[in-house]
């Protein structure tokens, strides 16, 4: 995808504040955070959303979840907890059509107003 901002981040054409990177997955800080800790985890392969995954993506999707969990741990979120959010399609608020997970955490206390 030539116009995909996340593909451009993967290629190094757009800067990002990386948290993790391997041959399949990239994690970086969101430029418009919605939580004290807000990191995006993306597969380097362009997949528009969960709606577009197929059986050929099973191994990649497993890796995607395992790496998201490891990134959350690296960010120190395991002790207090965190949320994983994946928006799929316009109606769910997806803004960038490259599959990505939001790792959100860092809130203090149960009354911080972040629950849904």
From TrEMBL:
Catalytic residues (UniProt): 100 (tele-amp-histidine intermediate)
Chain ranges of the HIT domain: 5-113
User: Which positions does the motif Histidine triad motif occupy?
Assistant: 98-102
Q: Which SUPFAM superfamilies match?
A: HIT-like
Protein origin, superkingdom: Bacteria
Q: Name one GO molecular function term.
A: catalytic activity
Matches recorded under InterPro entries = Histidine_triad_CS, Histidine_triad_HIT, HIT-like, HIT-like_sf
**From the record, what ranges are coiled-coil?**
none
What is the name listed in the Swiss-Prot or TrEMBL entry for this protein?
Histidine triad nucleotide-binding protein
- Source organism per entry reads Candidatus Gottesmanbacteria bacterium RIFCSPHIGHO2_01_FULL_40_15
């Amino acid at each position: 995808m030539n116009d995909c901002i996340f593909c451009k981040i993967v290629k190094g054409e757009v800067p990002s504040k990386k948290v993790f990177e391997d041959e399949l997955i990239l994690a970086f800080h969101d430029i418009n955070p919605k939580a004290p800790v807000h990191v995006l985890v993306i597969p380097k392969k362009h997949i528009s959303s969960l709606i577009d995954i197929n059986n050929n993506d099973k191994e990649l999707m497993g890796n995607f979840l395992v790496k998201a969990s490891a990134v959350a741990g690296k960010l120190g979120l395991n002790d207090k907890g965190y949320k994983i959010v994946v928006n799929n399609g316009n109606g769910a608020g997806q803004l960038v059509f490259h599959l990505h997970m939001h790792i959100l955490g860092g809130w203090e206390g149960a009354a911080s107003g972040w629950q849904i």
